[in-house]
Amino acid sequence: MWVWLAISFSALLHINAAYKGPKWQFYLFKPLTTGLLMVTLWQHGLSHFYQQAIFVGLLCSMVGDIFLMLPRDRFVQGLGSFLVAHIIYSVAFWSQLTSSMVWWLPAMLFGGGVIVFLLLLPTLGRLVIPVALYIGMITQMAWAAGEFWLTTQSLMGAFAFGGALIFMVSDSVLAIDRFRGPYHSATAIVMTTYYLAQSLIVLSALMMASA
């Protein structure tokens, strides 16, 4: 219980600093929040492949956090770090399938991904291919999590799928803010949904540890 309060407080301090400063608080608490999620998972053990993959995905996410908050624009490097994180999360989710897949789910998810891409397309410029690859990968990650939930009908799968869907929302808002024009509430929405998504994915791994 206390660790989740610490994670929530750290996330809140980062979001507050994004609007009001100080800069050191902004730079400290963004990776620290992800780091606390890693420590939480580490303390519960990494005995299963699923837990190990989620831990490595969090590590890649922390690297992406650092790239995206640097004073100089490191958007492509941050995008690449999160792309790797989504690949690793996907492998973890696919490893948990216990029966045949459903095919209406990817149709819905990739349809949504195409809509977001078309919304961003006029302003992407030279980033068309990297952004398209990223949207495809995060959509595939959500598909993997959804199949995990649908085939297992488990709370663990539900946490994973919920986290993946919220991750898509977070990244969609981030992309719209960056490519379609910034707006004041974007940072709060992006970071709140981001930390919620990561927390749900970690909770899915913790449920395996307690099983």
From TrEMBL:
Short name of any one Pfam family annotated for the protein: YhhN
Main subcellular location: membrane
Compartments where found: Membrane
UniProt xrefs under InterPro entries: TMEM86B-like (IPR012506)
Residues of the signal peptide: none
Keywords, alphabetical: Membrane, Transmembrane, Transmembrane helix
Organism superkingdom: Bacteria
Membrane topology: Multi-pass membrane protein
TM region positions: 49-68, 75-95, 101-120, 127-146, 158-176, 188-209
Entry's family note: Belongs to the TMEM86 family.
Identification of the protein by name: Lysoplasmalogenase
The species this protein was found in: Photobacterium sanguinicancri
Organism placement in taxonomy: Bacteria, Pseudomonadati, Pseudomonadota, Gammaproteobacteria, Vibrionales
